[in-house]
Fold this sequence. Notes:
- The protein has helices at about 40, 60-65, 85-90, 225, 230-235, 290-300, 330; strands at about 50-55, 70-75, 80-85, 95-100, 105-115, 120-125, 145-150, 155-170, 175-185, 195, 205-210, 215-220, 245, 250-255, 260-265, 280-285, 285-290, 310-315, 315-325, 325.
- By secondary structure, it is mostly beta strands.
- About 10% of the residues lie in helices and about 40% in strands.
- It starts with about 40 loop residues before the first helix and ends in a 5-residue tail after the last helix.
- The chain folds into 2 domains: about 15-240, Beta Barrel (Thrombin, subunit H); about 245-330, Roll (Pdz3 Domain).
- Strand 2 (about 70-75) and strand 3 (about 80-85) form a beta hairpin.
- It is globular.
- The protein has a 6-stranded antiparallel beta barrel with strand order 1-2-3-6-5-4. It has a 6-stranded antiparallel beta barrel with strand order 7-8-9-12-11-10. Strands 14, 15, 16, 17, 18 and 19 form a 6-stranded antiparallel sheet that branches.
Amino acid sequence: MKRMLVFLLLALLIPAESTATPNEPRPQLVPAEPATVPAHLQKIIPAVVGIHSKIPLDRPSVLTLGPLRWGSGVIYDPQGYILTVGYIVSDAAEIQVSLQDGRTIPARLVGVDTQSGIGVIKLEGEGPWPAAPLGDSTKTAVGDPTATLGVDSDKSLVVTQGSIREIKRFAGYWEYMIDRALIVAPYNPSFGGSPLVNGRGEVIGVTSLRLGEAPQVNLAIPIEYFIAVREELLAKGGVPSRPPRSWIGVYTVPTPQGLVVAGGSPVGPAADAGFQRGDVIVRLNGQTVESQEDFYQKLWQTKVGEEVTIVVLRENKFEIIKLKPVDRQRAMSPPGK
């Protein structure tokens, strides 16, 4: 079988959530007079940056995210370290950062935490650079006021003031799940990598996704996911001390019929294992799969390199698929790294 899982996501099954660089027209939501921006946001704005990255065409992420990406970030350290979302900078060979003073400064990739989805880059050149303080999202509650500060593709600032709509577990179709996600409304159209700021002017999250039907909301990764691994991520580019999650590279979508296969990564074990679009995953290693979250939890209980057995329902018949999970970070890394 040729690498049949290298296909587009099933359009009718994928929910309205975005994991790639946003590319629709951007309404300008910044007040015309800077004085009308609350003082706690004015302090943050100099540290908000736009990010443009170029990715080599031979990298796996190009197939889903493209070779040219743009998004936002925030300088959190005067030495020039920038917090953003991983998909903007993963595999980047060239990164250009636009500052609020009009300058464009090159940056280098420092690291990406594939489990949380957070990425870090660093400005080239000496600082000190304007920096925003990191806060604590653990005391954040539903209804608390927030602001999302992004930079659009034209390098213009986009500010959206809103509030926390929900705090909940989130699972994504690409074998991704975080136990605590901040759901914010209204959404900022320049969401990718934008800092989420609380009422005290502290960064409490990294905005990652746009979710749902109109009126849409944003998902932000709480800052604690970064703080917990900061030192290792900066020193090693990842978190090698943490046992890797088993990864097979299959894209799934919850439906009333069950957990449906909708695509996959070209570098994952699932690509050659025999999955087909429309397969319904019903069991993993003899255990019933109840939901997408349940599938991930059961998969992550297995070890990298040990064979797993997945039963799928296909055209009213059960099919057995055997494959060995791998370490996602290693599978996605360039040869020799």
